[in-house]
Amino acid sequence: MKTAHHSPSSRHMAGFTLVEMVIVIVITGILAAVVAIFIRAPVQGYFDSVRRAELTDQADLALRRITRDVRLALPNSVRVSTVGNVHYIEFIMTRSGGRYRDVSDGSTGGDFLSFSDAADLSFDVHGPLPAITPGVDFFVVFNLGPGNAPANAYATGDSCANCNRARITGVAGNTVTLANNPFASQAPPLSSPNGRFQVVPGDVRAVTYSCPVAGAAAGNLTRQWNYGFFAGQPTPPAGGNQALLATNANCAVSYAPALGGRHGLLEIRLSLSAGTGADLETVVLQQQIRVDNAP
What is the pLDDT of residues 178-225, one digit of tens each? Predict the structure, then answer.
């Protein structure tokens, strides 16, 4: 009789039983659940931090852009209104400025700017010539703002009569030529006490920032420009160019135009949100902007 012999390798070929597989799956599931409990909070915290940082960067960038623009605003041109749960901040942008040669500044020669002769369309600039684009930019003197005609650069039209703004048509050396002399029709002429003038870029002109008021439905924070000059503040302006700065935004805006005499203070509280429900994230940044209103 022959006896069956099993090789040593055949005894190790047996697989897992179904019970063993179920036990392994259950233990793995328990371990995964335990790990998920401890990992979920840090991971969620990381994503919350990233989203909060992105909102903060977006809000900071928007406020920096507004601040940079407002600091270049023509003196006494900032005006703020609220219409239909939207704040509108409008001002006239300036490119540069300088001092014109005037009979009262002690100069003994050169081309003076006349505030009584309508035919005088040129004048010399003291010092280096500021940045000017002839045929595009505007020349403004002694702006006192709305309600102070004729010292109001918001007067309608590119070539306004009896106002303080005129189109620049040419530049040669230190001499600037104007399309017309609107100052000559003023009675009395409103010249700058210090012979100062500002240059308004004709491809920007007035600028408006609009943002939904705090407490209303969140919306877009936008910048609009190059839509012209209007005696009354347009809310919103029609035409021109428009850029989106932020979405899901709310603002609280206040403006004191004569805080401390010649300077104003524009205060903006910007709130940006992202997500919904339990994932809603909101950041709030506040900015105070000093406005130079010395004409």
Answer: 999 988 888 787 889 889 999 999 999 999 999 999 989 999 999 999
- pTM to 2 decimal places: 0.83
**For residues 148-163, b (16+ Cβ closer than 10 Å) or e, as one string?**
ebbbbbbbeeeebeeb
d(CA 89, CA 47): 34
- Cβ-based neighbour number of residue 281 at 10 Å: 16
- pLDDT, tens digit, 9 for 90 and up, residues 33-68: 777 777 777 766 766 677 788 999 999 999 999 999
Which residue, chain included where needed, has tokens 């709305």?
A: 146
**CA 175 – CA 109 distance, rounded (Å):** 13
Residue 263 CA to residue 269 CA, distance in Å, equals 20
Sequence-distant (≥ 6) Cβ neighbours of residue 181 within 8 angstroms: 114, 117, 118, 119, 120, 121, 166
Residue type, 3: T
Amino acid code (one letter) for 198 = Q
| Nearest by Cα to 181 from 112, 85, 132 | 112
Q: Which residues of 111-146 are buried (b: 16+ CB within 10 A; e: fewer)?
A: bbbbbeeeebbbbbbeeebbebeeeebbbbbbbbbe
Among residues 201, 161, 132, the alpha carbon closest in space to that of 123 is found at 132
